[in-house]
Amino acid sequence: MKIPLVPVRELAEQIRGVTYSKGEASATPAPDRLPILRAGNIQDEGLDLSDLIFVPDSRIADKQKIRINDVVIAASSGSLDVVGKAAQARQDFRGSFGAFCKVLRPNGQVEPRYFAHYFRTAAYRAKVSSLAAGANINNLRNEHLADLKIPLPPFEKQRRIADALDRADEVRIKRREVLAHLDELTHSIFLNLGRCNTTKFDWDSSLQLGQVADISSGITKGRKTSEKSLRNIPYLAVVNVQDKRLALSNVKQIEASEHEIERYRLCKDDLLLTEGGDPDKLGRGSLWNNELPEAIHQNHIFRVRINEPRRVHPVYLNHLVSSERGKKYFLQSAKQTTGIASINMAQLRRFPLLLPPIEVQQEFARQVSAVQLLREAHQASLSELDALFASLQDRAFRGLL
């Protein structure tokens, strides 16, 4: 039996987001303020209720408060990866959502969980990307969402499909929780170094980073060069360097001379640190482990190459720099303007080290490596689960379940 396609306008009411001035928004809650969700609060696993802003409650109509089963959608963004992101509210929320988001509130004609699952499918994402594409900013207009057509089998079958997708999604959620616990374990191992009885060994606090490592900036995009022989080579930008991990799914290339390539070439155990960004992400970094056969780095990334391996282990240094101690140093040293913070090479060279004996650092690195191997296995399993879940979604909304 052919499954009817029903437009969203017949299945849900569309609610506009809250408008407010910049001066009305605050990061601090107050009795006369309510929280507002933004695009960053919309995650694949649901609504993230952290990193909220608060606006006067007089700005929010009762209808705009988020209710259980509402589907919150990012409707406007400079990135097509963001626009169209959707998550279902699992409970009533005494707050609302900003003007760059929309809410679809399903009616009694559709099973709410079935309705919400549609907005997580690859078919939906492909559709909204084509609809929203714009020159400077991507927008989903009211009619874009209202005209979307959803396969609508009988209500009981909608419920069975929602149950199946919920069960499959729960397995993915548990796998993500395991990965989060492994990240916490690595952090705990680092903190435990400081809890050891320091009378058993001496900690060296006399050195600065520039005394044990060579620190350099990278290649500048758009620079002028007299070199005639250039070739394309992958180069890491700020977006590729995250906190203790590298995001290499989208690495761009740049034309560079052999002299430049030799100068900026990345070697195993180079620590890559970003020079600026949001204050809470300042100085984020990760180790290079020859993930690509060849690569260089841009000028907004510092390359820290240890030249005193008998004193400092790169894995320990990576965790020290990204620790609360490291973040505190960067925030105190950084130049900050309009919410952006940056450090320079001189400040990085003066970074104060705190070093246990190299044997202790090596043991720490061995434990981190063991956790990392376990994490990679769970990450591979999660990737397989994600692929299976996407296949299940596709079959469900093509009427094959």
**In angstroms, what is the radius of gyration?**
25 Å
- pLDDT under 50 segments (min length 5)? none
Number of strands: 25
What is the molecular shape? elongated
Major pleated sheet: 4 strands, antiparallel
Give a concise summary:
The protein starts with a strand and ends in a 5-residue tail after the last helix. By secondary structure, it is an alpha+beta fold.
Task: Label this structure with key terms.
401 residues, alpha+beta, four-stranded antiparallel β-sheet, 25 strands, 33% helix, 21% strand, elongated
Question: How would you portray this structure in words?
Answer:
The chain is α+β, with helices and mostly antiparallel strands and 401 residues long. It is 33% helix and 21% strand. The protein has nine helices and 25 strands. The strands form nine sheets. Strands 2-11-7-9 form a four-stranded antiparallel sheet. Helix 4 runs antiparallel to helix 9 (358-396).
Annotate the secondary structure layout.
Elements: E1 5-7, E2 12-16, E3 33-37, E4 42-43, E5 46-47, E6 53-56, E7 71-74, E8 76-77, E9 86-88, E10 96-97, E11 101-106, H1 112-118, H2 122-132, E12 138-139, H3 142-146, E13 149-151, H4 155-195, E14 213-216, E15 230-236, E16 241-242, E17 245-246, E18 253-257, H5 258-264, E19 271-274, E20 276-277, E21 285-287, E22 296-297, E23 301-306, H6 314-322, H7 324-333, E24 335-337, E25 340-342, H8 345-349, H9 358-396
Parallel strand pairs: 3-10, 15-22
Antiparallel strand pairs: 1-13, 2-11, 3-6, 4-5, 7-9, 7-11, 8-12, 14-23, 15-18, 16-17, 19-21, 19-23, 20-25, 24-25
Helix pairs in contact: 4-9
